[in-house]
């Protein structure tokens, strides 16, 4: 068997022309261009996934004529070539043949060494199914393939009639969905948190990477207002690096969902959350869900704000320090500090842990504290308490009401 497979492999390789076929999963057609009963009409590729991971690459070859399984004996057979490294040279060859009274399948490397069995069956009198396990291909991100049939008889094909689909090049089969990343985001138990904006305007930035070879086919971005909004389409496109501008109200929070497809229609989805800060001067009463309250005690000053401060306001603890409480929230919270130096001790009512924080002191606004609620999503009534030393400034609070 090994001698026959190697001989046929060399014949097929000699007839294989250079070049490539674009991403095209299912099906490809081949003309009525070869004598004999194994003239290929079409090849259909089916991909099975489980939880987004490839489970089987499957191919079905259909001929123009009916043929019995026992026809695949002697020098008659069907092969699938698999190029898993992108060099247009097959690393794996699946062979369907008839022996011992049964239809069988075997996998070989390019040297003709036996690697294992492959699944074969007959869906119809004109077709044959060949299926591999992913590990038999070496788990590539994508592969390229070509199908061959070879048939010899005394009438019409005395020197072997060989057919190839496609007639030239290899067919790319991308089997890995694109990857989605949100640059600058923060990892949290709710997923990715987008960078907090200095204004109510912000960009939803995301990058798409395709490793399977078919390229980015397209993406769609939608948003949902938290905690109980409906999904709304925002934008779509085909680029790999994307930035979608949004403008939302103070204190709002949104989940953004990106769905991306590659050229072979593999799909993946990723989400990230954006919390638009409450201003440090927020007085309450603007929201339909349970409205948190923000209160100050002891010594705070509101002068010295600049256009760089969020919504043009700023609270800075004076002599003797100050207290701040942000009450009746659930979900996730972040404290925004400006460029001025200062320290504070922050506690949450559901935790005995104290968080010592310091303003950036480097000319930039940023999150100086990020804290999730400790008692599980769904409970209400958390209080964020800030004991600020003199000089510590508060520019805003991000509140993400995720259930």
Question: Can you tell me about this structure?
Answer:
Strand 2 and strand 3 form a beta hairpin. The chain has 2 helices and 31 strands. Strands 4, 5, 6, 7, 10, 11 and 12 form a 7-stranded antiparallel β-sheet that branches. Strands 14-15-21-20-17-18 form a 6-stranded mixed β-sheet, with no helix packed on it. The two termini are 63 Å apart. The protein has 403 residues and is mainly β. The protein folds into 3 domains: 173 residues, Immunoglobulin-like (Sandwich), CATH 2.60.40; 97 residues, Immunoglobulin-like; 123 residues, Jelly Rolls (Sandwich), CATH 2.60.120.260.
Got a strand count?
Answer: 31
Distance between the termini: 63 Å
Give the helix/strand class.
mainly beta
Q: How many distinct domains?
A: 3
Q: How is the biggest beta sheet arranged?
A: 7 strands, antiparallel
Query: Which quaternary structure do these chains form?
Result: single chain
By CATH, the topology of the largest domain is Immunoglobulin-like
Q: Tell me the name of the CATH class of the largest domain.
A: Mainly Beta
What is the residue-averaged pLDDT? 81
**Second-tier CATH architecture of the largest domain:** Sandwich
Number of helices: 2
As residue ranges, the low-confidence spans are: 1-24, 374-379
Strand content is over 45%
Q: Give the overall shape, derived from the CA principal axes.
A: rod-shaped
Radius of gyration: 32 Å
Fraction of residues in helix: under 10%
């Amino acid at each position: 068997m090994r001698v026959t497979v190697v001989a046929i492999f060399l014949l097929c390789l000699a007839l294989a022309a250079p070049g490539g076929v674009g991403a095209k999963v299912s099906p490809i057609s081949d003309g009525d261009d070869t004598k004999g009963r194994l003239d290929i009409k079409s090849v259909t590729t089916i991909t099975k996934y489980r939880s987004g991971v490839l489970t089987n690459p499957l191919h079905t070859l259909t001929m123009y004529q009916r043929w019995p399984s026992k026809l695949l004996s002697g020098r008659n057979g069907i092969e699938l070539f698999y190029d898993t490294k992108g060099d247009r040279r097959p690393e794996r060859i699946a062979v369907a043949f008839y022996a011992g009274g049964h239809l069988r399948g075997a996998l070989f490397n390019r040297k003709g060494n036996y690697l294992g069995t492959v699944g074969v069956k007959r869906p119809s009198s004109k077709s044959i199914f060949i299926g591999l396990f992913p590990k038999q291909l070496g788990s590539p991100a994508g592969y390229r393939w070509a199908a061959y049939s070879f048939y010899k008889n005394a009438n019409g094909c005395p020197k072997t009639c060989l057919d190839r689909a496609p007639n030239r090049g290899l067919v790319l089969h991308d089997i890995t969905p694109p990857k989605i990343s949100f640059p600058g985001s923060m990892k949290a138990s709710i997923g990715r948190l987008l960078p907090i904006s200095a204004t109510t305007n912000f960009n939803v930035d995301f990058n798409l990477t395709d490793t399977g070879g078919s390229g980015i086919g397209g993406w769609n971005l939608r948003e949902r207002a938290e905690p109980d909004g409906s999904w709304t389409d925002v934008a779509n496109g085909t680029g790999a690096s994307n930035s979608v501008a949004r403008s939302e109200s103070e204190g709002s929070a949104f989940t953004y969902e990106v769905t991306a497809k590659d050229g072979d229609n593999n799909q993946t989805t990723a989400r990230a959350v954006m919390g638009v800060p409450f201003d440090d001067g927020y007085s309450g009463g603007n929201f339909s869900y349970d409205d948190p309250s923000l209160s100050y005690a002891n010594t705070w000053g509101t002068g010295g704000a600049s256009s760089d401060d969020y919504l043009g306001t700023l609270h800075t603890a004076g002599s003797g320090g100050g207290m701040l409480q942000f009450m009746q929230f659930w979900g996730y919270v972040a404290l925004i500090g400006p460029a001025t130096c200062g320290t504070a001790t922050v506690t949450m009512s559901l935790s005995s842990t104290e968080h010592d924080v310091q303003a950036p002191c480097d000319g930039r606004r940023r999150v100086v504290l990020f804290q999730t609620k400790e008692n599980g999503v769904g409970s209400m009534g958390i209080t964020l308490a800030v004991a600020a030393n003199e000089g510590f400034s508060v520019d805003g609070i991000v509140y993400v009401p995720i259930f």
